[in-house]
Amino acid sequence: MKLVVQVKLLPTPGQASALEATLRACNRAASDVAVVARETGVYRNYDLRKQVYAGIRADYALGAQAAQHVIKKVSDAYATLKANLRAGNYGKPGSKRRRSVETNPVVFRWNAAQPYDARMLSWQADARTVSIWSTHGRLKGVAYTGSADQLKAIATSKTGESDLIFRDGMWFLYATVEVAEPELIDPSGFLGVDMGIANIAYDSDGTGYAGDRLNGYRRRQLRLRKRLQEKGTKSARRLLARRNKKEARHAANVNHCIAKTIVTEAVRTGRGIAVEELTGIRERVRLRKPQRVTLHSWSFHQLGSFLDYKARRAGVPLVQVDPRYTSQTCHGCGHRDKRNRPDQETFHCRSCGVVAHADHNAALNIAQRGVEGWGAVNRPHAASPCIQ
To answer: pTM to 2 decimals?
Structure first.
């Protein structure tokens, strides 16, 4: 399986100057290519390369590999833009924002990530240095550092494409590495995980993750964003951008911790993990307006992806199940009724009378559906009749 490993570069002032010049040149070239693509209507990588490859190599002193990565970056950006338009993420057809996105070319920030392949970047794991291409020539002996796990992954795994990134005054490489994927265990059951608003996650063992404290943090961030947006000054917009990155990093850290705890418990008990299908969760869930803000401010998809790759690394089976009616169905007797859930937190079965935490009941239903889904996938096929 492939993982992304972040390491921090420690360039000398001269090396940092060369890296900055390289990023600026690559992203100016990318912005120019984006204009040509928009004007000509040519967005496919190979077709676009015929029109701009020679020009950007000459104008921006790019190497052959760098020029090709710049063109592919532009092609990928328009493909993502098209997907977002198709999904309605830029508003309804005819809206001001959508018209602007549909007509204006993509613009790249000077410090947008630049891909590097094996011809442009090599690792010296023993010395903890990299040799990296720049517009000022090859930079050798650029030091890097990271956590013990990150350094081990770079030293022992096969590395693929890497992205050069400048963020908050620091240089990073995001390297793709290939690690061995263990065989899945034969689970003795499934740990169900329900994702929601009051608790980001709640498992079938009755453990809730990131509840009131995290929701309080999110409400404070919302109030601060509102004040900064109302102020509207240049400094307020800069602070808003910094706060946005900080909140995104905090959310990612919380999601990592939740996913790690759930996977560790599944490993300890020899169980698989069952989660609800997250595709379309924002369209499927009906909430009051204050809760909608909370739903849209949290990356449930990110938490799901963290659970997926951590489970695969640990050899734990993970299945996605249909989440419909899990919050309305009694785990004990199977009775389904909208009135079984009188409020957000409480589940009270109108058939057998059981009272439980609503998220716990939903997680138990998800765990049961995980067992059924795993059994259906892994059930031995009936033996074919012999023909004499």
So the answer is: 0.77
